[in-house]
Structure formats: C-alpha cells, structure tokens
Task: inverse folding
C-alpha cells in the first residue's frame, strides 16, 4: 500500500511541476505580478 501511494504521489508532483514550468516560466509570483499586480516591482 505504501509503495503504491508513494509512486503515485511522486507522479502527481512531477506532472504538477512540469505544468508549472510550462504555464508559469517566471514562477507563481512572477505570473501573478505580471497578470494582475502590474504595480509591483
């Protein structure tokens, strides 16, 4: 049970990281700042 959960967890985390890099290459805060908070430096 534990090994199956661990591999599924790692797969989900890996896919999430790949999607984050593809859709937000400047990072989470960089994308938010660019889209909604243009006044932030």
Result:
């Amino acid at each position: 049970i534990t090994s199956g959960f661990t591999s599924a967890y790692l797969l989900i985390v890996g896919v999430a990281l790949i999607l984050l890099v593809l859709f937000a290459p400047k990072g989470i805060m960089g994308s938010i700042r660019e889209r909604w908070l243009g006044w932030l430096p």
Summary: The chain has two helices and no strands.
